[in-house]
Fold:
Amino acid sequence: MNLTDGTARKLEVRGLSFAYEGRPVLENLSLYAGQGEFVSLLGPSGCGKSTILKLLTGILKPDSGEILVDSCRISEISGHFAYMPQNDLLFPWKTILDNVCLYGEIHGTSEKTRKEALANFPLFGLGGYENSYPSALSGGMRQRAAFLRTALCQADILLLDEPFGALDVITRSEMQDWLLAMREKLNRTVLLVTHDMDEAIYLSDRILILNPWPSGIVDEISINEKKRSRDWLYRQNDLRRHIFSKISGSAGRKENTQ
Structure:
């Protein structure tokens, strides 16, 4: 199945439901992401955004519903997905090169992965740090190393779980600028979980706003701007107000049901 612009649907989630210890977290959730599309999941804390990513990776099993990649059903841990958490999780006793090549080491493709990693170090702003240890890198550089490790997994779909959430405001802005510049070079479908409205607006082709548990999508926003900049972002007050009203409105509906 294709989108209206002819882009193929890379990922489809249909009627996904999941409960934790008898408490519904997701209920009949459906979403999609096109080939090469950048989609953000935005919503209040506890609405199940990270749970969605864990269900996609196969770490958690849904109670019902289905997950499809390229129209094929996925029911277990799959090489289609690469997951990047908030913390960089670099091993302090390994060099940066060894850290980013863990996927190749695990899967017996070390030589190929190291060659590809070395070619990409300058692109990821890590040139000259191949043999350094994580303690020698700034927070932003550590996140770029973690991102390179994720990208080297060769997965079709990158799942980013608040990857810049632990960084200070200035470094987070720099990383957002870097990721925006990297999008075309990565050429991957991306699903980003974030609490940051500006991050979602700045990076996304579409934003999906989730209501609190049991989660569903209360709004979908398409952003068609091709030439984005910080000046463009700062002018998006109407969009920011719209997103805030949807998030705060969904949170209010939760309170009224308790």
Notes: The longest helix spans residues 237-257.
